[in-house]
Design a protein that fits this description.
With 87 residues, this protein is mainly α. Helices cover 46% and strands 6% of the residues. The structure holds FE2/S2 (inorganic) cluster. FE2/S2 (inorganic) cluster binds next to loops.
Length: 87
């Protein structure tokens, strides 16, 4: 049986990528390989909402399962910067 024949879509491959990436703390969007660091960089560069972040990063543009986590990263970053904006 070939390896692809027993692939259970466990995302183990992505966990290995995360483990090996020294600068990435966490992949928020697996579909488009967007990290929390990239989202934080976007907010630090002036993005004030997830929609702003999506204008420069492809986060939550595929299956959408990452949208809630991406929003949390945006909110945490805005809070840390002392900026509060409505969603
Ligand atoms: S995980 Fe982000 S769009 Fe699918």
């Amino acid at each position: 049986m070939s390896r692809s024949a027993i692939d259970n879509h466990s995302h183990l491959h992505y966990r290995l990528i995360i483990f090996q990436a020294s600068e990435a703390t966490m992949y928020v969007c697996v579909c488009n390989t967007v990290t929390d660091g990239e989202i934080r960089d976007a907010v630090n560069s002036g993005a004030t909402s997830l929609l702003d972040v999506q204008s420069c990063l492809p986060v939550a543009g595929c299956c959408g399962r990452c949208a809630e986590t991406a929003q949390q990263v945006v909110d945490e970053c805005l809070l840390a910067l002392g900026r509060h904006y409505k969603r």
